[in-house]
């Protein structure tokens, strides 16, 4: 297990280096510069700012300095907020993004697994068809479409829940639903397929022939094996939900990182764009690393297979 963990850790570091390098190259090849929208600045003032931020140095030197800074946790100073570092902006905005992501992920896992289990146990019944119809709708309707619909109809027209802002618990419900719906649908379909596959196995039929109750069969035998495929995608799903907050936050006026990302794109704040990209990439790679370790513990066959690879 130690060798397997070290191997995955090295892969994680290589992946992070590739992401940082690719991000740097892309930012350097974007048209314009961070100060081109500052019409009041003279050429001399722009030159001073370029020198202040180290943008007048050779590209290779900028790259080396950038790698050193990122390795030390320094993502640079925002061009949009000159007095603030990108890490400070992230520290201020990420808690709201993380909270929204946790709300959405909790809803997606709970409702998605429940729908998948019900659909499998009630195969080819109205419960199965209803659950799968919900899943198809969830996969088909993106959060940036569902969000405004929920905000308008549930929040404005019916007045059941607040259509925006980020204050009490009731303000979390609509953004969490909008953000979690597609993930909920994916989990429901995956859980249903996995459950049906396990239910048709010989050892489940043997358990039924021994007179075990359906509750005992499901809890002791079916779920334990059917949950494995779901565990493998929890990492990507977590990251998908967290990064999805960037869009949903704009719809429901959540004070997270979404507004900073959008504003940085409009203002050519390359430091903020690359900083947020690297920040979310670190989360993705680290969660995938933990998922690999967890799956290796749950199913030793995966650990052995990857160890030989």
From TrEMBL:
GO terms for cellular component: plasma membrane. It comes from the Bacteria. It is found in: Cell membrane. Pfam families: BPD_transp_1, BPD_transp_1_N. InterPro entries: BPD_transp_1_N, MetI-like, MetI-like_sf. The chain crosses the membrane at residues 9-27, 100-121, 133-153, 173-191, 226-252, 272-298. The keyword Transmembrane helix applies. Residues 94-291 form the ABC transmembrane type-1 domain. Its main location: membrane. Keywords: Cell membrane, Membrane, Transmembrane, Transmembrane helix, Transport. GO terms for biological process: transmembrane transport. It is a multi-pass membrane protein. PROSITE patterns: ABC_TM1 (PS50928). Belongs to the binding-protein-dependent transport system permease family. This is Peptide ABC transporter permease.
